[in-house]
């Protein structure tokens, strides 16, 4: 490894970071992470911290995870690459699709289309949705509906259904025919509705309105995260996604569940759709499928789609990636699925998530700067900071950064997203790790 000075000097000189301005990388140099073990990371100065970010919502099993590393190494030795385009396949990915069909059977999803990550998974689902309607003789169904504050990656399709201007404006014009409805975000919403169940009804009614306005026969799909992640951990009321499913069914619109964050246990259930008792037509997954150790994703596909595409020689899928079904990613994913099952990770996410949520709510009693605490479903929790609780005016930009900084000095890495602190630690963390995260946050808020 190059020495610390070399790395610090060259970070901003030769690399542009995602979601950051080159100038910001220069003025506020990033922490350079050089090691990871269990739920902890180590930076170039030797400072250790519990990674309450879990990489980027993806390192569910922690950084050690020997079986996954060994599976990757063994696959690299045996067959480091082969494509799954027409005419070839590979054994690792066939075994993975069989395993995924077993795991996702209760969600009604039994086919997989493999990708290289979350944005690719979203792009795949949007394209297959359009093709589905063409195959069924409704070529006019091309539009997409989604939620404001939703995040669906950064390809042009995903950015077009994204509901956050930060990821859109600089890249417009985006895909035509994408429309957004209000998110079931109880703390702030255009209806001024603070009851989650009534808000869910209002948002569902807004979806009905938009469908009527656009014309159902012009709409291909509705895409949503079962719990909005990057938008600031927004769990809808339990009635929301089932209402969406019913509305989509009534209008012949496909429902795409974007579970790039929520699949594989993060919510304390196997998938977000299962948490809400909904069977989507497609589910986008990535991230934790390989514990972040290999760029990989899978779109899981349900019965309606299967019926339209299979047994039809004209249903050629004109879409795919060089790395669709990469055998090393597949081997990593197989090992991750086995570990997730063996370690009862999903149950631990539910228990530790409840502890974290209650702990963050207790911090809210103590610190005025906390306006809202969201979570309650596994290990995705957000603390929204405000300048004034009564007006809900956003906290000044440096405030969350200061809390983050002090928490880091106290041995915990958390993520700042706007006025939110976001916690999405590995799902294998212990009760005492959660206590340590809460103590570091407390120290951060106390330092303001
Ligand atoms: N969809 C959702 C819900 C996500 O959270 C993300 C990434 N955070 C993506 C899509 C895009 O995934 P990727 O960054 O792997 O392309």
TrEMBL record:
UniProt keyword annotations, A-Z: Aminotransferase, Pyridoxal phosphate, Transferase
UniProt-listed PROSITE patterns: AA_TRANSFER_CLASS_3
Gene3D superfamilies assigned: Aspartate Aminotransferase, domain 1 (3.90.1150.10), Type I PLP-dependent aspartate aminotransferase-like (Major domain) (3.40.640.10)
Cofactor: pyridoxal 5'-phosphate
Superkingdom of the source species: Bacteria
GO molecular function terms attached to this record: pyridoxal phosphate binding; transaminase activity
Region described as Disordered: 9-29
One Pfam family of this chain: Aminotran_3
Family indicated by similarity: Belongs to the class-III pyridoxal-phosphate-dependent aminotransferase family.
PANTHER family: AMINOTRANSFERASE, AMINOTRANSFERASE CLASS-III
Name by which UniProt lists this protein: Aminotransferase
Species classification: Bacteria, Pseudomonadati, Pseudomonadota, Alphaproteobacteria, Rhodobacterales
């Amino acid at each position: 490894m190059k020495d610390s000075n070399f790395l610090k000097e060259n970070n901003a000189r030769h690399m542009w970071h995602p979601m950051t301005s080159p100038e910001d990388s220069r003025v506020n140099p990033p922490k350079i992470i050089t090691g990871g073990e269990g739920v902890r990371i180590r930076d170039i100065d030797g400072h250790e911290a519990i990674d309450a970010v879990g990489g980027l919502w993806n390192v569910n099993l922690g950084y050690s995870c020997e079986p996954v590393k060994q599976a990757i190494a063994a696959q690299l030795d045996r067959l480091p690459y082969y494509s799954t385009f027409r005419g070839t396949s590979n054994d690792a990915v066939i075994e993975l699709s069989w395993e995924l069909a077993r795991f996702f059977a209760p969600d009604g999803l039994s086919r997989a289309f493999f990708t290289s990550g979350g944005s690719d998974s979203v792009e795949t689902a949007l394209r297959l949705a359009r093709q589905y309607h063409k195959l069924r003789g409704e070529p006019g169904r091309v539009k997409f509906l989604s939620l404001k504050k939703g995040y669906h990656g950064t390809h042009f399709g995903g950015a077009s259904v994204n509901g956050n201007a930060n990821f859109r404006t600089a890249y417009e014009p985006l895909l035509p025919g994408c429309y957004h409805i209000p998110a079931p975000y109880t703390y702030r919403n255009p209806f001024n509705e603070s009851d989650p169940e009534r808000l869910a009804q209002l948002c569902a009614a807004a979806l009905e309105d938009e469908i009527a306005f656009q014309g159902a026969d012009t709409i291909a799909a509705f895409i949503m995260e079962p719990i909005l992640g990057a938008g600031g951990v927004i769990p809808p009321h339990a009635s929301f996604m089932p209402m969406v499913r019913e509305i989509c069914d009534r209008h012949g619109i496909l429902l795409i569940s974007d579970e790039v964050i929520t699949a594989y246990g993060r919510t304390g259930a196997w998938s977000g759709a299962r948490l809400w008792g909904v069977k989507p037509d497609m589910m986008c997954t990535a991230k934790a499928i390989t514990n972040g150790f290999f760029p990989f994703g899978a779109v899981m596909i349900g019965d309606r789609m299967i019926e339209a595409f299979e047994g039809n020689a004209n249903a050629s899928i004109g879409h795919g990636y060089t790395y669709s079904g990469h055998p090393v990613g597949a081997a990593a994913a197989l090992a991750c699925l086995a570990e997730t099952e063996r370690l009862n990770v999903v149950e631990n996410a539910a228990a530790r998530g409840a502890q974290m949520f209650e702990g963050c709510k207790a911090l809210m009693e103590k610190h005025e700067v906390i306006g809202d605490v969201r979570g309650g479903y596994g290990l995705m929790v957000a603390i929204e900071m405000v300048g004034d609780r009564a007006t809900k005016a956003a906290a000044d930009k440096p405030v969350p950064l200061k809390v983050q900084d002090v928490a880091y000095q106290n041995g915990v890495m958390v993520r700042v997203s706007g006025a939110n602190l976001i916690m999405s630690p590995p799902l294998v963390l212990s009760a005492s790790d959660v206590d340590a995260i809460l103590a570091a946050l407390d120290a951060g808020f106390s330092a303001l």
